[in-house]
Amino acid sequence: MVLAAPLTRKELAALAIDCLRRSGCEYGEVRFASYQTQRLTARDRSLDELSERRSSGFGVRVLLEGAWGFAASHRLGAGQVQRIVALAVETAKASRLAQNARVCLVPVAPERGSYVTPIQIDPFAVPVEDKAQLLLEINERLLHFGDQGVRKVRSFLRFGREEKLFASTEGALIEQTIYRSYPGFSCTAVADGDAQERSYERPPLNIGYEHIDAADLLAQVERVATEAIQKVRAPKGPQGVRSTLVLKPSHLFLTIHESVGHPTELDRVYGYEANFAGTSFATTDKLGTLRYAAPGLNFRADRTQAGGRATCGWDDEGVPAQSWRVVEDGILVDYLTDRETAHRLGRAGSNGCAFADSWASVPMVRIPNLGLEAGPAGGARTAALAEMIADTEEGILIDGIGSYSIDQQRRNFQFGGDAFWKIEKGKIVHMLKDVTYCAMTTEFWNRVDALGPASELEQWGTDICGKGEPMQIAQMSHACVPVRVRDIALGSPG
């Protein structure tokens, strides 16, 4: 007896769409996805972690009489697809009973196509031995500074590959393959009963193994170790005073993420997201009028930028990747939307911010790549980093990220950093430690009086942005330039 070949993902997707159309729903979609991640971590002279995880399955989402239903499975097959479609439909019927208002979606053209992250070297094709050897070499060089106070060292490599097939009852059929790479290391120095860490990372990007530049990583070892030793012996930063801050992109990206990215997620604005990380002060009645930042500052969302951690061809609702301003000339002009929230806002279409972190997760609004545009050549606020420092009578230069907190409306925040230097009379004089600053979101961004040129733009970002319950993890870049911010409070608020 000859057994029939198992159905391909495209054939299973076609079956799901046929079942959805026959169910009587006004909209339905199926998303097949597989994920592969690899993580290597070395601590001191040992490989502490070597893990490779794979996950695959499919999820079905259906809109029936204005109510959502969702179901998912890790098992593939015609019978399982039919069962999951039926379960999603039944879930929508149940959801309808508790729903106050019908869900409506903005239209989207039925896209058909494919997208693959441009890479030179497949990170999963590189031998694990080569990766481990690089990490151990970095650590060994860091430990050479042990007699000067370096006590603990850590290095890591992280890689990811996502393969997704999306189909909808509107006629969409989209395939995407996304690659991710991220390296870094840190060391901890100890002196006089204190311990301080200093780190170096190449930003998390959608790129191949070519991002793991061994020469660059090794070239940073001596500087990072030396700065850790200086930092642990440095005086503590001032508290309870106001100061000028000069912020490098390696630090500023997180401030952008927390105080501009999350507040402009439209589901958060509408209160869909409240229990985990709060809602937003940037409500729709302020759209077009809120002075979010100083004149001349522009924040752009862009899912098309090369290497961006949220870069793709389409979002997880089949909406094409786009680029648009969220804050223009300092004014709030737009939000981050999916098809549902865009309809509620009265927009003609979504700007493509739907993302699900798994085949078993429901898509939600997530921050895309969102960054601070460079100052224009000859602009009144445009100044190179060196010029900002030279023009600062007294202040603090901050590099890298540290502790942070922000209130439940994204209004009041506190940030630390990884390294700090005292500026006096236009010169860097010495390192500081334990510096934090606090401000209100709009107060902070309106106190920016200088921003760097395009030549100083850096594409930093995060691979661990949590949202929702159950929590989903998303990844995004925040390309930005250095800025100078005047009259900011140092230390804890109040």
Automatic annotation (TrEMBL):
Metalloprotease TldD/E C-terminal domain boundaries: 244-462
Stretches assigned to the Metalloprotease TldD/E central domain: 122-231
Tree of life domain: Bacteria
Every Metalloprotease TldD/E N-terminal domain range: 29-92
Gene3D superfamilies recorded: PmbA/TldD superfamily
Keyword Protease: yes
Pfam families, sorted: PmbA_TldD_1st (PF01523), PmbA_TldD_2nd (PF19290), PmbA_TldD_3rd (PF19289)
Entry keywords, A to Z: Hydrolase, Metalloprotease, Protease
Keyword Hydrolase: yes
Family of the protein in this entry: Belongs to the peptidase U62 family.
PANTHER family noted in UniProt: CONSERVED PROTEIN (PTHR30624:SF10), UNCHARACTERIZED PROTEIN TLDD AND PMBA (PTHR30624)
Protein name per Swiss-Prot or TrEMBL: TldD/PmbA family protein
